[in-house]
């Protein structure tokens, strides 16, 4: 018996990994966060599998399901949105499984921050602009953000910044970010990236809230702020990786003409 923590991806049924889809089809017990994992993702599961929506279950209730599956010798697919390593609340489950002597495996998934960048047609790292991506989230009752990681201190780097689940604190977040990012810094809101109901709002940080109905962006929204989101036509510097004059172990440099 084994538990598989499967990253379901950002929501589109075909953005789960091949490994994740295969294991989902094989497991006889499925636990999934129904508030974040769309039903479409479960199309990969066997119709005979027993399914439990964990949105209404506390940790002990979930552990009892693991115990039952252990007693019956059934593999479990524990399906999390995005990638289980990021805001997945998986650590406490893994600790409980170790205490129960249940083996587990983590199957990575496509994170929503990369799905948002894809939706925007953007690269979050650009030569001469930024080579750093910071992932953070808005502080909440369930998991407060440590004081040392407050949004203003992260913004001081002026790197690409992705704020998960920040829709309910947009005004506060933007005010904090404007302490360090110039108002003309590109910014975007992406809601339910990769899903049929996906929405985007692209602006600058200084104009992001203008004319916006904040209540429409409360749930499942990511805020992205980055100088790398400028129009690619404005690129002043590019990577040397594909420069004909740049040699590396897989390619010789081309000599110039003349």
TrEMBL record:
Pathway: Cofactor biosynthesis; adenosylcobalamin biosynthesis. It comes from the Bacteria. The keyword Transferase applies. Residues 2-208 form the Tetrapyrrole methylase domain. Keywords: Cobalamin biosynthesis, Methyltransferase, Plasmid, S-adenosyl-L-methionine, Transferase. GO terms for biological process: cobalamin biosynthetic process; methylation. GO terms for molecular function: precorrin-4 C11-methyltransferase activity. Belongs to the precorrin methyltransferase family. This is Putative precorrin-4 C(11)-methyltransferase. It comes from Deinococcus deserti (strain DSM 17065 / CIP 109153 / LMG 22923 / VCD115).
């Amino acid at each position: 018996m084994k538990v598989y923590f499967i990253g379901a991806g950002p929501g589109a049924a075909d953005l789960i990994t091949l490994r994740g889809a295969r294991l989902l089809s094989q497991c006889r017990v499925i636990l999934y966060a129904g508030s974040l994992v769309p039903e479409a993702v479960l199309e990969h599961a066997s119709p005979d599998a027993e399914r439990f929506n964990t949105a209404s279950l506390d940790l002990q209730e979930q552990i009892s399901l693991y115990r039952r599956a252990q007693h019956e010798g059934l593999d479990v697919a524990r399906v999390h949105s995005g990638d289980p390593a990021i805001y997945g609340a998986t650590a406490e489950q893994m600790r409980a499984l170790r205490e129960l002597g249940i083996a587990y495996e983590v199957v990575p998934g496509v994170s929503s921050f990369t799905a948002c960048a894809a939706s925007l047609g953007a690269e979050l790292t650009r030569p001469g602009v930024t080579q750093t991506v910071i992932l953070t989230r808005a502080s909440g009752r369930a998991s407060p953000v440590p004081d040392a990681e407050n949004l203003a201190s992260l913004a001081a780097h002026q790197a690409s910044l992705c704020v998960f689940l920040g829709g309910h604190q947009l005004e506060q977040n933007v005010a904090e970010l404007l302490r360090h990012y110039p108002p003309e810094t590109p910014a975007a809101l992406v809601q339910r990236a990769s899903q049929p109901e996906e929405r985007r709002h692209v602006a600058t940080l200084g104009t992001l809230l203008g004319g916006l109905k904040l209540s429409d962006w409360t749930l499942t929204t990511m805020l992205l702020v980055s100088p790398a989101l400028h129009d690619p036509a404005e690129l002043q510097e590019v990577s040397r990786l594909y420069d004909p004059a740049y040699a590396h172990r897989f390619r010789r440099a081309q000599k110039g003409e003349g």
